[in-house]
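Researcher: I'd like a candidate sequence for this fold, 241 residues long. If you have to choose between options at a position, lean toward the conservative one.
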């Protein structure tokens, strides 16, 4: 299998690639190409694809790990470039209102309306785990969570006219079964990266973890949480991060 990084916060010194805040990976496994998240901007993703010799028309599926604009903002531009109605896989709650109020009210969820996305793609919205293609799975919603992995982002949604904390329950990851063990690809790991890894083991029945790839969202985590995460990765035998 191969994973190409198409969007990431850093391009690197003397790199010809464009960086942007956000994530986008192209996962290639057994002849299937899945675009995992779309960055916040399609132009940079498409530019990097061109440099790598990858054609948007060859993408079979798009998987959106969660609603955040830096993972979904490139969606429409990339769909137009793909030019076919391919499945877009995500959690059913992905189009909800999702906002911050500090330093000011700002929507940070999907920057498109569901109806507009449906004009260009087949939405496949489910929070259940399932096999997308041979050996490649959506984890579905992560229901069992480690006690130390609390979602600390101050984000909100609207429910019947009330402003309530949003737990980002739409956070889902992709798991690939390889001959060397599982490869787990996560967007932001708002569900908690250790919870995601343990869920992936239960889902597939495979205990060897070849690699965990993606955003872990531990930038503001305290030393205790980072320590517990490292301990858990060691206990689970995660080979590469
Ligand atoms: Fe996020």
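Model: Candidate sequence:
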């Amino acid at each position: 299998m191969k994973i190409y990084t198409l969007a990431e916060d850093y391009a690197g010194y003397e790199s010809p690639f464009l960086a942007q805040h956000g994530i986008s990976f192209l996962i290639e496994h057994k002849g299937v190409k899945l675009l995992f998240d779309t960055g916040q901007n399609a132009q940079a993703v498409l530019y990097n694809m061109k440099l790598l010799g990858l054609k948007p028309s060859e993408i079979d599926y798009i998987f959106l790990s969660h609603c955040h604009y830096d993972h979904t903002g490139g969606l429409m531009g990339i769909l137009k470039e793909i030019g076919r109605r391919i499945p877009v896989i995500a959690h059913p709650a992905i189009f909800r209102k999702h906002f911050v109020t500090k330093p000011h009210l700002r929507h940070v969820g999907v920057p498109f309306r569901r109806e507009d996305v449906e004009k260009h793609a087949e939405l496949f919205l489910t929070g259940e785990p399932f096999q997308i293609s041979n050996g490649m799975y959506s984890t579905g919603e992560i229901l069992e969570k480690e006690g130390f992995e609390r979602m600390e982002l101050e984000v909100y949604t609207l429910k019947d006219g009330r402003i309530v904390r949003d737990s980002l329950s739409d956070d889902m990851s992709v798991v690939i079964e390889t001959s060397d063990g599982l490869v787990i690809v996560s967007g932001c790991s708002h569900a908690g990266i250790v919870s995601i890894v343990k869920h992936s083991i239960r889902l597939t029945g495979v205990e060897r973890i070849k690699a965990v790839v993606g955003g872990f969202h531990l930038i503001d985590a305290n030393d205790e949480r980072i320590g517990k995460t490292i301990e858990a990765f060691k206990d689970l035998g995660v080979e590469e991060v």
